[in-house]
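Open question from group meeting: does this chain pack into something compact, or does most of it stay loose? Before anyone orders reagents, we agreed to write out a predicted structure and look at it together. Recording both the input and the output here so the notebook holds the full record.
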Amino acid sequence: MNWLDNGDALAAIGQFLAEDIGRGDITTSSTVPPEVRGMGRLLAKEYLVICGLEVAESVFLHLDSEISEIETTFSDGDEVEEGTVFGTLKGYADVLLTGERVALNLLQRMSGVATLTRQYVKAVEGTGAAIVDTRKTTPGLRMLEKYAVTIGGGKNHRMGLDDGVLIKDNHITLAGGVAEAVAASKNTVGHLHKIEVEVTNWAQLREAIEAGADIVMLDNQTPDEAAKLVQMSRDLNPAVLIEASGGMDLDRVRSFAEAGVDLISVGRITHSARAVDISFKIQTL
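Structure tokens returned:
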């Protein structure tokens, strides 16, 4: 799903601008005459995967509905090298200056998530495993960050707690066991909801599958341990999806993919992605 198609993804831009502008951009209003027009250039200062062009454009349009659209030959998902001008925007110079920081913050953040995700996707290329995100996102930016994951080539896990059942260690403890937790979920949630269970050993894996889990999550295993659990799971029920999670560094993620899992969830593609370096230089027209 393209989360930008959901109006909620862009609805918070006014709040982001209000946080930054406050009672007004006193620097710009005191130095730049309101009639001056300008052109801003989006410049990649390092290799990156572009993500957030529509979001950045929406920031400026929120300030001035007459401003031009971003002129570009690139699209979200394109890889660009350092020194590439990947978009220009024309309008009143004071609008460009006032919206610059919020637009760049979002563009740099989203491109950072997309860039890191792309690295993970390339690391498991050819294995059949998919890279998926988690709920470890920045509060208020989940839709934008999950959109960025898809632009980087990854897939989305749950959007929120209402999306699917993911039974973890605390749920298992409080429910009285794996089978009890799965049974309780099956008796409560709708038939369209998948049930996933986090497991750490063979006994839990068997119990989860025999109880009717649709997905099992192999948590904090070594690649060798994961490979054994994958084979055990396939023997019990080949239809059960297998997800690996926990400490997925770039240098070892492929070993988990080669262990035969279907999904690899990586929290760091959202919670630890570095904002990439993009500048916005403005000149008068």
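Observations to bring back to the group:
The domain at 3-121+273-284 is CATH 3.90.1170.20 (Aldehyde Oxidoreductase; domain 3).
The longest strand covers residues 37-44.
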